[in-house]
Design a protein that fits this description.
There is one protein chain. The chain is α+β, with helices and mostly antiparallel strands. 50% of the residues lie in helices and 19% in strands. The mean pLDDT is 90.
Length: 152
């Protein structure tokens, strides 16, 4: 069995909405052969809680407006570290980057086929690593400035 056309339509729209809000490492899996409860998973991440919420809101808005779809369940909204949107045909996971690394959902679903996503969503692969490197460089520069101030 493969994901339904409706699931693929929802995944594509959700992935584009996430990309529009600068989500990192957007990926989708066809889980229809291994799960009876849904056809596909979409994973996306962001470097802070506020952006996680923004991505989730954008996905909900686009799916409601363009496809008339509303989630039957929404979890994790309060902390905004890992928000799950269940649309029955698809499940969307938007995670804080740290949680994404820790829980490594990709490792669980790596044997499932990837779903092709819009170009904007595909272009987000590796963005979390780039962001982490920039943040580390900024942190190191800040430490050096502080050290330089202490030496004077």
């Amino acid at each position: 069995m493969t994901a339904t056309d409706r699931a693929l339509e929802l995944i594509s729209a959700a992935a584009q909405a996430a990309a529009d809000k600068l989500a990192h490492d957007i990926i989708a899996y066809d889980v229809s052969d291994v799960l009876a409860i849904t056809d596909a998973f979409l994973l996306a991440s962001a470097p802070n809680d506020r952006q996680v919420k923004s991505i989730v809101d954008a996905i909900e808005e686009r799916l409601a407006k363009e496809l008339g779809a509303k989630p039957v369940r929404r979890e994790g909204d309060r902390e905004a570290r890992w928000v799950l949107l269940d649309y029955v045909d698809i499940v969307v996971h938007v995670q804080h980057s740290e949680d994404r690394v820790f829980y490594a959902l990709e490792r669980l679903w790596k044997d499932c086929p990837e779903i092709e996503l819009p170009a904007d969503a595909q272009a987000t692969k590796g963005k979390a690593a780039e962001h982490a490197q920039r943040q580390q460089a900024a942190d190191e520069a800040s430490e050096l400035r502080e050290l330089g101030g202490e030496l004077r």
